[in-house]
Amino acid sequence: MKTVLGVFGDPVAHSRSPVMWNAAIEALGLDAIYLKFHVKRGELGDALRGMRALGIRGVNLTLPHKEAAFEFLDEVDTAAQKIGAINTVRLNEDGSLSGFNTDAPGLMRSLVEGGAKLEGARAVILGAGGAARAALVGLENEGAESIVIAARREEAAEALREEFAKSSRASIRAADMSHLHELFQATDLVLQATSATLEGNPHAESFAASIPIGSLPDHAIVSDLVYAPLETSLLRRAQARGLRTIDGLGMLIHQGAIAFSIFLGVEPPVDRMRSSLGLDT
């Protein structure tokens, strides 16, 4: 019997996940398929119960379901609890549903692949939302020395700092983005974790221009978690400055690869997943 996997979202038509998942499934010769399921806000509970009824092995969750899933699952992993979001749900043999978050480890794999040294790193995260939380958890786990959460609203950054600081081995600070010039002078890694650089955002260029890229050391790496467009306004400015950059598509690929292993128990061919999206291996 064919193993059915998929993604729940609203909207979901734009998702690129089926392309890379089905490419990996085909490459391994597995009898499985990955589909898109349009699950509207408020209908997630019904959809997850439908997983049990239909025997769907696993699903990924995208907006607006990542936070809403907690109440419908039997167990949730530590990363998902800390991040406050679930992006992977597995149907177990006993009929129970387990939730995971693969965003943090997926992002870290992407950064390492791009040449970033995470242990002992001095990092600045731009933003204090869900993507920033995933970045913070990942950096903590990888042994970053210091992490600054910089946001337009310093109170949002401070709330996130307060939540994580007591249990973290890293030094965590909160700051307003107006202080980036001073902060950047002792920064190894910048992670852009807001929606400011998304395709179609009329303020993308002005946002990038407000970030003092020139204050970063020559060895610094700039990463943008946004992958549409692949080359964001911020990455263009960093490249013009001569800095190494890492786009957001690697996170999409690697978080999917981790979920693939959770669902199917085998490592997927990441190079095949990448090439299916029109990227070089």
**What's the Cα radius of gyration?**
19 Å
Structural class, please? alpha/beta
Distance between the termini: 32 Å
Average pLDDT taken over every residue: 96
CATH fourth-tier homologous superfamily of the largest domain: NAD(P)-binding Rossmann-like Domain
Number-wise, the strands total 12
Contiguous low-pLDDT stretches (5 residues minimum) are: none
CATH-derived topology of the largest domain: Rossmann fold
CATH class of the largest domain: Alpha Beta
General shape: globular
Please tell me the CATH architecture of the largest domain by its name. 3-Layer(aba) Sandwich
Number of separate domains: 2
Strand count, sense and barrel status of the largest sheet are: 6 strands, mixed
Number of helices: 11
> What is the string of SSEs from the N terminus onward?
EHEHEEHEEHEHEHEHEHEHEHH
Beta content comes to: 15-25%
Question: Could you give the order of strands across the largest sheet?
Answer: 2-1-3-5-6-4
Q: Can you give the helix content as a percent range?
A: 25-40%
